[in-house]
Write a structure and sequence with these properties.
heterodimer; A: 404 residues; alpha/beta; Rossmann fold; Alpha-Beta Plaits; six-stranded mixed beta sheet; four-stranded antiparallel beta sheet; 12 helices; elongated; B: 256 residues; mainly alpha; 0% strand; ABC transporter (chain B); membrane (chain B); transmembrane helix (chain B); transmembrane (chain B); ATP-binding (chain A)
Chain lengths: 404, 256
């Protein structure tokens, strides 16, 4: 069991981890999620006693790592797959780590077999692919047959077969009653591997719950219901009927209703009972990935901007229409089942965007690079094109304020 | 127990990378070859020396002339042994396995020092005999007064240079930075400081100049150095202890 209490780490003016408290329990795979730079690796290093926390503490089985008796036999870790001397061959790399921990040399050959590297055991690790490096790192973590295992981004660079192998290995290790703590920035991978999730952003705890709870709390299934535009009183009537039946109803900007808490057939029955015609009744589901994105978006340190390629373009003569302004197929076109757009700054569904099929508009929350540019007549942009940049900033500050 | 494990592991680390063989091999070959070359030149030059120079003609020290270059390879060895861990990131894995950081550092230094001592002594003896063989009629014998001390001292000198480099590398972590400071220092700055009369008094307390005193059998006439051969070696040892303690203090305190 790993327990962090009020863990804080500052590097000069930058706070990498702030007031983090969590527990990692034995017998399950615990996923440690967060965007790049959110403090996952720093936390892992503090667990292993490599970095000293500024305040707070983290213990394994009740001991700080540096005081843990026989630490390498109790805790195994993969921190960085590239942290091997390239000139040393795989077996010697593991052998020196084994000797450091007082583990017999035959265990080295065992773990080489477990990770499938026995054929390249005498090859220099310089020539290893990232996936082979990950396997070597996992082998090092398994050397001491430890009860507590930490893996920092173990599936990076692995092929699909390797990813499946890692997933099953983690589950098998946890099923043996071990504590398995796996960091990743891939929600989809963690949803398949982990049973419990600890989500951090900007070094602060965002969520600490089981995957099942995380899904039900964040996946936000809803039904969209649309009544005829010509009869607004029907809309009021239906809202009343649905609310009475126990559903939550939120109006959308374009007049549709977003209904949660009622199954689709029941909505249809209620509408029929209230004598209201429906133009639309459709199921919507936000994926776990979406929920994670929404949760962490205010906490992303490194955000890409649109590549305007302005530095590469020649100056256009005055009055000329710029080239390459046509929208790319499949990009910027809202799907019928598009999940709620993430530009609401972590406030799900508070300010829904229009979902009618319409010309280019970007549901992914990136500023539309074409919105401000002169448009060729063929691709008109709606006047209500979203300008999400201020929203994002707002979301970020909201998030920070909320966390203080 | 932990110390024995660290020693075994460090031996595996040090023997399983090719840089060990290359740097130590180069240290030996360069020292021996250059020593022989200078010895040949000195032998041919002997007839043109005046009486005073003939009196202070030091065949032992001449045969060790290659050390000024050979020590550079020793510096590279000492730096790489320590900073390899940092440049590869393996230090984290090592420190996770041995949370007692002092044990890890001194275990590493101990193993590397033993190896450097073996290579240094072998180099020193081979250099001496090869140089004397080339010097022919002007040669010194191992049984002459002070000669055995100088030859063993040559091996100790190479070992201490490597140890000093390990301490500096433990402080600086980066191999490029460590080499970039140590190489010009020992190859240029130290000899410039020792060669210019104004800075000579300071220069002779630098580790290499103080330490190399032990390889001299005959001292120059106008020599006013305030320490003897063993005193000089003690000054060098003090430098080494200082560098290693600095490295230990930083490793202990620093985030890995």
């Amino acid at each position: 069991m790993i327990e962090a209490v009020g863990l804080t780490k500052r590097y000069g003016a930058k706070t990498a981890v702030y007031n983090l408290s969590f527990q990692v329990r034995p017998g399950t795979v615990t996923g440690f999620l967060g965007p790049n730079g959110s403090g996952k690796s720093t936390t892992m290093r503090m667990i292993l006693g490599l970095d000293a926390p500024t305040t707070g503490q983290v213990t394994i089985g009740g001991y700080p790592y540096r005081k843990l008796p026989n630490a390498p036999r109790q805790v195994g870790a993969l921190l960085d797959a590239k942290a091997v001397h390239g000139g040393r061959h795989a077996r010697n790399h593991l052998l020196c780590l084994a000797q450091l921990s007082g583990i017999p040399a035959r265990r080295v050959d065992e773990v080489l077999g477990v990770v499938g590297l026995q054929d390249v055991a005498k090859k220099r690790s310089k020539g290893f692919s990232l996936g082979m490096g990950q396997r070597l790192g996992i082998a090092a973590a398994l050397l001491g047959d430890p009860q507590v295992l930490l893996f920092d981004e173990p599936v990076n660079g692995l092929d699909p077969e390797g990813i499946l192998w890692v997933r099953n290995l983690m589950k098998a290790l946890a099923a043996e009653g071990r504590t398995v703590f796996v960091s990743s920035h891939l929600m989809s991978e963690m949803a398949l591997t982990a049973e419990h999730l600890i989500v951090i952003g900007r070094g602060q705890l965002l969520a600490d719950m089981s995957v099942r709870d995380f899904i039900s709390a964040n996946s936000a299934d809803f039904a969209r219901v649309r009544t005829p535009d010509s009869e607004p009183q029907h809309r009021e009537k239906l809202t009343a009927a649905l609310t009475e039946a126990g559903g939550q109803v939120m109006p959308e900007q374009d007049g549709a209703l977003r209904v949660t808490g009622l199954p689709l057939p029941r909505i249809s029955d209620l509408a029929h009972g209230a004598d209201v015609r429906l133009w639309e009744l459709s199921p919507h589901q936000a994926s776990l990935e979406e929920a994670y994105m929404r949760m962490t978006q205010g906490a992303v340190d490194y955000r890409s901007t649109i590549d305007q390629r302005a530095g590469l373009q020649e100056q256009l003569p005055p009055g000329a229409v710029p080239q390459g302004q046509m929208p790319v197929a499949g990009q910027g076109q809202p799907g019928w089942y598009a999940p709620p757009p993430p530009q609401q700054g972590g406030q799900p569904f508070a300010m829904p965007q229009p979902q009618m099929p319409q010309p280019p508009q970007d549901p992914a929350g990136t500023p539309n690079p074409y919105a401000g540019a002169p448009q060729p007549p063929a691709a008109p942009v709606p006047a209500a094109a979203p300008a999400p940049a201020p929203d994002l900033t707002k979301g970020a500050t909201d998030n920070e304020d909320a966390a203080r | 127990m932990a110390a024995a494990q660290v020693l075994r592991s460090e031996w595996t680390k040090i023997r399983s990378v090719s840089s060990t063989v290359w740097t130590l091999g180069l240290a030996g070959v360069v020292t021996i070859a250059l020593g022989m070359l200078i010895s040949i030149l000195s032998r041919n030059d002997y007839d043109s020396l005046n009486a005073k120079d003939r009196l202070t003609f030091d065949p032992t020290y001449i045969s060790f002339a290659g050390m000024s270059l050979g020590q550079l390879a020793m510096i590279v060895f000492g730096v790489l042994v320590v900073s390899n861990e940092y440049s590869t990131g393996m230090i984290r894995t090592s420190l996770a396995a041995v949370p007692q950081r002092g044990t890890l550092l001194f275990g590493k230094v101990f193993v590397a020092t033993l190896l450097a001592l073996a290579v240094g002594l072998a180099t020193s003896f081979v250099t001496f005999f090869a140089g004397q063989a080339v010097l022919g009629p002007y040669r010194a014998g191992l049984g002459d007064p002070g000669v055995l001390r100088a030859v063993i001292g040559g091996g100790l000198y190479m070992t201490l240079i490597a140890m000093f480099s390990m301490g500096v590398a433990a402080m600086l972590r980066s191999p490029m930075l460590s080499l970039g400071i140590l190489m010009p220092f020992f190859f240029l700055i130290s000899s410039i400081l020792g060669g210019v009369s104004a800075t000579k008094k300071i220069g002779r307390f630098l580790p290499d100049q103080a330490g190399s005193r032990i390889m001299q059998v005959k001292t120059p006439f106008d020599d006013d150095t305030p320490y003897g051969p063993w005193g000089g070696l003690a000054i060098m040892v003090a430098w080494v202890v200082l560098a290693l303690l600095g490295g230990y203090a930083l490793l202990k305190k620093r985030d890995a």
